[in-house]
## 1
Amino acid sequence: MTLAIIDSGGANISSVVHAFRRLKTDAVFTADAEVIRTADRVVLPGVGAAGAAMSRLRELGLHQCIRDLRQPVLGICLGMQLLFEHSTEGEVECLGIIPGTLKKLQSGPGLRVPHMGWNTSQSTKLMADDSLLSGLPQDPWFYFVHSYYAPTGDATVATCTHGETFSAIVRKDNFCGVQFHPERSAKSGVKLLENFLTCS
Amino acid sequence: MTTSLARRIIPCLDVRNGQVVKGVRFRDHRVMGDILELATRYSAESADELVFYDITASPEGRSVDCEWVARVAEVIDIPFCVAGGIRSVEDAREVLQQGADKISINTPAVRRPELVNELVAAFGSQCVVVGIDSELHQGEWVTRQMTGIPQQMQHTGHATLGWIEEVTHRGAGEIVLNCMASDGTRQGFDTEQLKAARELTSVPLIASGGAGKASHFVDVFNQADVDGALAATIFHNQTVPIPELKSLLTEAGIGVRPC
């Protein structure tokens, strides 16, 4: 099993590397298109702003490379958001693999933004048997940290609600994404990452 | 309120020379245990996140010792924040690269408030926590800095509530308000001050200082509507075990992540 973690420019990527290492899988942290293309699994992490991450992927010539991948790909947090078409965070064109536009969460009474902390995730009826959810409890708890959200749609596997109801887990073909940080979501996160490594 | 976002229980580990220590009202620090041992225990006990304060970094004029940050990142699978002596985007980058999820700044933000904006621009709001040490002085809540070493402790000249508004405006993603008069006393959180802070900011607000028993957590969540509550001694010495605390909070109708 080879696992490539794409160097999308975020600073705190090592927690993802450590999480896979605890699952006995050594990851290669890389911006090399060839290494990414030939890996068995690819993770697109990301922390920070959509614009900076997309500029970096374009500069590295990885924009098309990622779109063309056929092996299982997991976007985490901003990496999941980049799978969508467009972000209102600086009006940025993203990878366009999943339809939809990212919008900012609104604060209000009892609603803090960023959405930071542990929240539950509800699977959608159509996608409840997705392999990523295998062995997870009903409405599992995950650790979220974000200010922008991805809409729900055909690709939504599970949702989360913080004022808005948004996509917590998405899948389109071989591309999946999670808004939360599985590497920091205790047992549920470990199980999800394990599912990603073992899915076909 | 349409969210099931849990209120967070956050053990705070004050780090000095690679060990966890704790003082009373910021003085007389005693060794409480090994960093990795405590971090692993809290992770297993369903603590929601951890905060590590390198309490002597700022007064000693150095940034965080990154060696233990990397070791913590390797072993735990819950988020953690690192504070102490982060003075620049480069200092912060180093800590985040070692695997910390957030960085918290206190004294350096007071000295150069633009640092908050710079960190937000570099890493996003969600990584940037501003810690505030505050106490009542001549009838007004004011901030203090260099709280790690008593002889160097100073007033910063900021009114606490104004400073909270300013750092929110500068893009801070979370505020930890440490009420110094309560710190280490175990007499309860300063709900009055926290409530006043809550009314001024819509970013996550974490209560710190004064936790002595489980009911203090019920009080601070109910009365001050804070997003998380931080404590040290009572978790380190297991006066209040986290699983029991979470059961009590659930019974009191406060949403927490179950064990």
## 2
Amino acid sequence: MSDHSSSYEPSNGFTRWLDERLPIMRLMHGQFIDFPTPRNLNYLWTFGAILTFCLMVQIITGIILAMHYVPHGMHAWSSVEHIMRDVNWGDLIRYTHAVGASMFFLAAYIHMFRGLYYGSYKSPREILWILGVMIILCMIMTAFMGYSLVWGQMSFWAVTVITNLFTAIPVVGESITQWIWGGYSVGDPTLNRLLSLHYLFPFIIAALVGLHIWALHVVGSNNPVGVEAKTPKDSVSFFPFYVIKDGFAVIVFALLFAWFVFYAPNYLGHSDNFNEANPLQTPPHIVPEWYFLPFYAILRAIPDKLLGVIAMVAAICVLFVIPWLDTSKVRSTSYRPLYKPFFWLFVITCLALGYLGAKAPEGYYLLASQLFTAYYFIHFLVVMPLIGMIETPKQLPDSIAEDVLEDTSEAEKA
Amino acid sequence: MNLSFTAPFKTSKLSIAVLVVSSLFVSPLVFAAGGGDAPEIKRQEWSFSGFFGRYDKAQLQRGFGVYNEVCSSCHGLKLLSYRNLAEKGGPEFSKEQALAIAKEATVIDGVDDEGEPLERPGKLSDRFVPPFKNEAAARSVNNGAYPPDLSVMAKARTFHRHVPWYTEPYYWLYDITTGYEEKGVDYLYALLMGYKTAPRGVVLNDGMSYNTVFPGHQIAMAAPLSEDAVEYADGTPTTLDQHARDVSAFLAWTAEPHLNARKDMGKRVLLYLVILALLLYLAKRSVWSRVKH
């Protein structure tokens, strides 16, 4: 894919001069204009563009917020209110950043479920998938650190709860936790390093996104059928076909985004974060933002602190190895009748864990979290390897063109 | 032939969609189920709620009156400046009125030649002067309780509906599509209206009042409002309900001072995005009509 020749023709003296010294225009032309892309991609494939949009929104709004934010325990919370009140359009910049985090995760989760359904992690896309898991890991850390900067009650206690998890590490846990805090409790030094890292991580994410796109352009996009594009008939050029489709999808996504920013900016947040951080008063319920709830449910489902932490980390890290856990040669779940219901059971499991993460871990709620946590891991560790071995998949079409054009005579004509 | 077969299917799909969407706008009281010991807090009608919501200037002015004459003796508004009272999208007092309000406050600013703190009347640029010097001073005259600052109180409180778990996704959708951002305001209103005589068998601690809405039902603040507590210049009836509504609306504004401007811009942004989406969709269709897919 990446070795396809770029049809770039420098059009004037300057671009010819540039092309001989730094063929960046040639590279961009080859990768984002000519780039052959499967002709049968559905709208689930637009989330790559949507996520790029989200990252850009977060970085731009974040840089502006950092111009006005004060990383000090006494001033952080009021400096956020200062942004909301006294900075020109500061409320919109901050709401866009806060809602933007939610939108970023919404898009990332859809992107991941799409990858899971269509087997986009399978050979030759393992590195592409692993880079994606690294991105979501960085996103989780960035979002967590960003939320803490508000320095409201929920921010402060979320930092306290999560950093305290490190004390579960045997022998050195206590020392590591104090090293992270920069003191004997969450305080000013903690807040300052959270800001420093929160500002750094998006650029690490941007670099990983660069690698992610590079890896994608080496092997090419997967597609709903899961059969590799072989002939030119299977593909269309990225421009104009996918530029216009991605552009349309980004704007539709922006509509949802704008609805939240302008008409429900605090809906996805928590009211307790409008109370300034108070180390002496624990809130009645400490709940993370919605996008962390499934992991929070897994953490609390296990009564042992250390095992709970291990399970929570494993819930994400298991994704690194699924290219090798899934034994099926067929990529698309549409052609896997036996696996399909298990896939949807997994989706329900994730949604249920999200619901349960917001509830007190007691009674039926606890029992349900434990059952769903069990299935979360069973799905990857048992269902994925086993079904691939025993399943008889449906007959795959020979090519994307054959599938799209339905009969081969038409495929030959096209 | 083919068409006549598919048409009824499509309409039925459409009508289901219409039913689902329209049911979102039907009052969700159908599902309201009694639960536990906390009473149901009801969603109120506010001039500033929803897509077309805007603050009612007159209501905010009345609400400021209630705050100024009743609440401000114990509760501060430390995030607000006096100038905010004259700004667009708020109570919109005149500059002179706002200055008169500011001048009633005494601000400690700088020191004299002997190093003693200097006092002067407030200016428009001053933050609201808090009612107590510090927390200890506040607690000493309030039976040990600390009256919280009210600047963002309307966003710092919320309530949970007591509904069966399987109806919760319905409420999420309902709240999002109707832009329900006033849970905290509804809580404040319910709290101010929630003072009742304690039911038989409930023993109140010294100095505490019974409130149906407050968690634990024992609240250190005595019922602050009553009928005719504050005079209204605009002739609005001075009922307890009206006082509670007006001051809750005022606190909604102090918590979200730029709501009017935000919602105005939102309409323009959404309109722009809808038109752009439409154009892009047409362009996309035209581009893709060149190939079968």
## 3
Amino acid sequence: MAGITLKNVNKIYPSRYGPVHAVKDFNLEINDGEFVALLGPSGCGKTSTLRMIVGLETISSGEILFDGRRVNELEPRDRNVAMAFETYALYPNFTIAENLSFPLEVRGMGEAERKKKIDKIAQIMRLESILEQKPPMLSGGEQQRVSLGRALIRDPDAFILDEVMSHLDANLKFQMLHDLKILHRELGKTMVYVTHDQMEALALADRIAVMDHALLQQAGTRNEVYREPANRFVADFIGEPPTNFFDMLVRRNGNDVNIVSEDGAISFSPPEKLTKVLATNNIDAVTLGIRPQHLGLSGTDGKSCSLKAEVHINEYLGERSILTLKSGNETFRALVPPYTSAKKGETVKLHYAPEDLMLFDAKTTNLIA
Amino acid sequence: MAVTVGGGASAGAGATLPDWFTSKKKNPSNLIVARWVPIALVGLPVLTLLAIVIYPTIWMFYHAFQDTNMMRLFQHNWSFVGFENFKTVLSSARFGDSVWHLVLYLTFGTGLEVVLAVILALTLYEVVKNSLLRVILLVLIVLPMMLPPSIVGVLWKFMLTPSNGAVNHALLNMGLISTPVEWFNAGVSLWSIIIADVWNWTALPLLIIYSGRVSLPPAVYEAARVDGAGGWMVMRRITLPMLKEVIAIAFIVRFMDAFKFVDLVYVMTSGGPAQTSELPAYIAFQRGIREFAIGEAAAYAIVIFACSAVIITLFLKYLKKVLKAQAIA
């Protein structure tokens, strides 16, 4: 069992065009038994971070601790972590049973004991029927289960999962999400899960660490990153369809504060809490964010404020429809029930709850709270 | 002219297509091109093949059953002798010896080349991490392969000259031998050819195996590292088994060359002394081109062809089975 601590971790790759700073001053505390997702777009440094945790990549500066013990200089095998790879990385010339057995064999475990462990893992991962086959004959989902099984079998302190679902089709993905969640609950081991898919991160993780441009943007529970994103990037990256953003100006009138677009076409009234904050500081330009889910056609559920906009596109997606709307120079989306009859050119009234507004400083892009 | 083709099933109705597309009248100049270009493109290579490969092969098969020699060839009075030529070939001690030489050559020449290639290729990949140094070494290793075999033969014949050749000179100076080795004596000359051939051709299997190693998935090696496997374990359990097919292919390529191996034998020893370094293909060459025993040479060629075809077929069958077991083919 291990808690993982990253202290000021940096990764700098040398390259022909000068050093590339892939991970900058990364600080994160992963508790023992926690399921943490590292989330970010490709090239943000999440895989580099993970490879440093596993020991496949050297740490340029900073420290990684397992239960307070510095592991910077340790080889992967001495860190007792297991890893599942994006490409599964099964040994293609081994049967599934041999694949599962290899980590044990390396550790010098006897054959009888190995057999027992393989049978147990095969049962957990539903691999009994394919133990004698070779990896290239299996489907992606089966290969990924073998890969997870191989990671599980040697009873590591922590699991590191690198984009393990990015090559699975939607149905399998749901099955695997379920399997992984159950597995984590039963084993209670620390799991670090790297992904670029916010849906996977939201579905699985206790805590999500969002990365962009080599920097940790925010680490928090699912609710925190969804409801109180630390900055515009996090708000944009988490949630689907993406958050609507408006470049707005703050109009103060004594104690009353209004947020108005430059051409005056849209205005929002911020919640009381934010009104107080805005009344006292001197930020004039803000980026306002509101999720398409939080814009509705009816004023129920505390949606006490409203704005008018013209329907531009009405996309019917089965269980819901997405309206693309126009108001002044702004284009934005709202998620509405299916069979909404709004047609192009029609003007509709959109309701929202002021608490759902997210305000970001236009200069720093950080959340104003 | 505008082409508006309606989407989906309604493409036909209401679509305006260009005139040339719908017109019933064919363009006469296009017709000539359309008819004759494909015929010419396919026909010329077929004719060439017929002339330089297929006709001579049929000719060879025909004369393998005739008592053709140069005299009879010019007088056009050869006659059918059945399997006489094959009897001569298969019963001759000379042929039996040459097959034994071929076995030695395949085991110690081709075999050594592939073993050396595996060792060198994997060392180059695992040990030399500087990419510039790697390229320089690869070029150096490949250099001998760029020389024509006849030049290699002359070069090695020169270096192996017993009295004052470079090799004996070096061995004497290093104190490894006390008297010069007679490199071209009976029983030794075949080994001299093998040495020159290994020097000449090791780079080919090396390149094949090296590129095979380069294309192995790096993630598998990372998995092995995380699993805790050491260098030897990885080499023995993962790298070599994964390279099995590539090594087999490298071997097949050199194996096929062995059956037509004439050049170094001809240049270095001419099969001598006393036919102790002859290989089957060299005898066929000697009997046919030098001595004009055309019927017998044709029989030699067919025997060699049949043997190599059988062995290569078995080899490929084995390879296919291995690949199938791994679900690659």
